[in-house]
Amino acid sequence: MTVHVTLKDLAKRLKVSPSTVSRALNDHPDISSPTKKRILALAESLDYHPDNVAQSLKNACTKTIGVIIPEIKHDFFASVLDGIEDITHEAGYTILLCKSNESYEREVINTKVLASHRIAGLIVSIAQDTKDSLHFQSLQRRRIPLVFFDRVFEDFPSSKVIVNDEEGAFSAVNYLIKSGYKRIAHIGGPQHLSIAKKRFQGYCRALEENNIPVNMDYVLFGGMYEEDGGVAFDRLHQFKPDAVFAVNDPVAVGAIVKIKAVGLSIPKDVAVVGFSDNAIASIIDPPLTTIAQPAYEMGASAARLLMDEIQQKNSQRKAVVETLKTRLIIRKTT
Amino acid sequence: MTVHVTLKDLAKRLKVSPSTVSRALNDHPDISSPTKKRILALAESLDYHPDNVAQSLKNACTKTIGVIIPEIKHDFFASVLDGIEDITHEAGYTILLCKSNESYEREVINTKVLASHRIAGLIVSIAQDTKDSLHFQSLQRRRIPLVFFDRVFEDFPSSKVIVNDEEGAFSAVNYLIKSGYKRIAHIGGPQHLSIAKKRFQGYCRALEENNIPVNMDYVLFGGMYEEDGGVAFDRLHQFKPDAVFAVNDPVAVGAIVKIKAVGLSIPKDVAVVGFSDNAIASIIDPPLTTIAQPAYEMGASAARLLMDEIQQKNSQRKAVVETLKTRLIIRKTT
DNA sequence: AACGACATCGCAAACGATTGCATAAAAAAT
DNA sequence: ATTTTTTATGCAATCGTTTGCGATGTCGTT
Predict the structure, then answer these.
(1) pLDDT in the model for residue B12
(2) Is the pLDDT reported for residue B307 higher than 70?
(3) SS3 category, A91
(4) Which of A87, A282, A280 has its CA nearest to residue B75?
(5) How far apart are the first and last CA of chain B?
(6) Spacing of B65 CA from D10 C1' in Å
């Protein structure tokens, strides 16, 4: 009365050896077609499914890939996950999903759990709290292919999928300048996050190329959430900026809410630009000018890179960095 | 030069048997504390991690649970997933994530893949295309605990987490009636989906209890997406409804867009009520009156139920149905 | 001095599947 | 009729871990 039907069960019932059953199920040419048919038929009727766990143990590799993201309930990551799922599913892989909750400790635990699950590879966007990459180095030592996306370590020897943050930020700020805005503020994110840093750099370059000095009164670094945007604009308010370039859409939204709250009008008094083109951007009032990131495509690209690395496991792998293009979407906040 | 450090490696290095190492790592009382310390120390320095795959094989159970959802990039499911992750992570389980893309075939494949991964349990919200439950019955025969949420089979003998859809719909429509709306239309979903059916039932009951006959001119059944809402209102338009109760928020949004497009004003000419309280609801112009579903809580509840069932595997399990409360959120579309 | 009680540890089988090698029978070639 | 080849199947080891049982060795007890 075993619950799971095993290969041995089939063997016993048919009075053949387990090896024969295994070969028959894998359509090995050594097995005669009559026996093959008998075995296939029984397997079918008993609803036999090979035990992936045992197969993995034997083959020293599973058909699962790990994914670690800071949070799930977030347009961007959800879309990325969607892209990852579609590609890996095609390739016969399943996703082991972990969430870091932006915590370094939880990220470390996740890598350990996933490693001991023997994932074939790992796709990661690192947490805000994460500053060192020891846990990922440990995975590389075990030859587990690794692909980072969006939030990456700049000098980590692995494949990455990023967007051209600097360029995107540049084009947004440059557009603001060309539109005649003079006092352009920046609400930035934590500068140890490469995306936050790059966006700040793009902001600076745009100003410089237009011969506008970077005034640090207009620059604030905080978190990546809506409340951070509100807090930041509160402090910025005294300097009367006529435009705000936020590190991402939630922060931009936070700023918008605050701007409206203090009685200023958008974009007449203050223009706002976000980053990411979250769903919220097209829906908020007024609709937010922002920089679109191809989220689904990033997930799909990361998954494709990972699948490649897994397949050619033994050949010398080279870390490839894929930079996807951003796109400035002009709406009503500028 | 093995990549993975195994228990046997430790054993060899320390000239003890693998069983001793195993027991030491599991803090078995038979092992003396000096040897324990030696083993622990080496395990630490060699960055040893037990192979989950081998453990799973031996123990006939993994520390993973499967999750099948129709799509990921959707506020509701993403939030549910968030809830599931938090609870299962606490319990030491990892999520194997599959997406059905609303397709019956893909759902069937997913159940097979997950079963052969030997998941300890499964959480599912069924696809729109799914009409029979054979694949889930097959899982139950293998004694894999199953919990459905949101979209469930009404008469399937397993635990479920649902919201009181009928009651939620009733309260929304009742509110519309009390507010003085007379010609209340319903843009419904596929009636084989229990949630769509229940919401329609709530709509009917509200009308009936207020002595308003249900006029099927005002009722349309379609899909669950934004475009379906637009299409539906197009056809509804001729009957001049003064209020629309949509089966969910995307459909409501589709209707809103269409209503604005034909030059009607909301809520003056037509009121709109959605269902789910997606992020979009609070952001769209005008902000949408809708019925809030506790998405995160549903995920967390489903996960808790599943954890319980897994732990008391052998005792007779009873299917428990947990019904969470909805909440009418009144915004500006009514 | 002899015997049982403990404390430590190893042996070996097991989980379910795969696979190189050996073996047996049947078919083909001489 | 004998040898060679082909075809079909079984044996046994292996992946990494766990665990019941048995084998030591060390004490304390009478």
Answers:
(1) 92
(2) yes
(3) coil
(4) A280
(5) 70
(6) 38
Mean pLDDT on A29-40 = 91
For residue B27, give both structure tokens.
């803090």
pLDDT of residue B314: 47
Q: Is the dihedral of CA A231, A233, A234, A239 positive or negative?
A: positive
Identify residue B321 by its one-letter amino acid code: V
Domains of chain B: total = 3
Among A82, A69, A152, residue whose Cα is nearest residue A110: A69
Has residue A329 been placed in a domain?
A: no
**Segment holding A166, helix H or strand E:** helix A165-178
Q: Do the beta carbons of residue A246 and residue A274 sit within 8 Å? A: yes
Q: Check if the beta carbon of residue B146 is closer than 8 Å to that of residue B302.
A: no
pLDDT digits (tens, 9 = 90+) for A54-94: 999 998 889 999 999 999 988 889 999 999 999 999 999 99
- What is the overall mean pLDDT for chain B? 93
Residue B330 belongs to some domain of the structure: no
- Among partner residues A3, A94, A285, which is closest to B143 by beta-carbon distance? A3
Would you say B298 and B233 are in contact if contact means Cβ atoms under 8 Å apart?
no
Give the pLDDT of residue A314: 47
Unique residue bearing structure tokens 């008391």: B312
| Closest CA-bearing residue to C1' of D16 | B54
B138-165 pLDDT, tens digit per residue, is 999 888 999 999 999 988 999 999 999 9
Residue A264 is part of a domain; what is its CATH number?
3.40.50.2300
Q: A138 by DSSP, 3-state: which? A: helix
Q: Which domain holds residue A32?
A: 7-50
What is the mean predicted confidence (pLDDT) over A196-202? 96
As a whole-number percent, the residues of chain A with pLDDT over 90 amount to 82
pLDDT score for A317: 66
A178 with A233, same domain: the answer is yes
Same domain, B300 and B158: yes
Q: Which among A54, A82, A115 is the nearest to B49, CB-wise?
A: A115
Q: Which chain A residues are within 8 Å of B82, Cβ to Cβ?
A: 71-73, 99
Q: Is residue A85 located within the same domain as residue A203?
A: no
Q: What sign does the dihedral A292-A97-B104-B166 (CA atoms) show?
A: negative
**CATH number for the domain including B44?**
1.10.260.40
Q: How far is A61 from chain B (nearest CA, A)?
A: 10
Q: Are residues A204 and A284 in the same domain?
A: yes
Mark whether B169 and B288 lie in a shared domain. yes
Rounded to an integer, what distance in angstroms lies between the CA atom of residue B108 and that of residue B133? 9
Model confidence at A124, pLDDT cuts 50, 70, 90, reads very high
Mean pLDDT of chain A: 92
Q: Are residues B148 and B262 part of one domain?
A: no
Partners of B141 on chain A (C-beta within 8 Å) are: 3, 47
CB nearest A112 (choices: B49, B73, B296): B49
How sure is the predictor about A312, in pLDDT bands with cuts at 50, 70 and 90?
Answer: confident
Spatial CA neighbour of B245 closest among B332, B198, B185: B185
**pLDDT at residue B205 in the model:** 97
Bases of chain C within 7 A of a CB of the protein: 7-12, 14-20
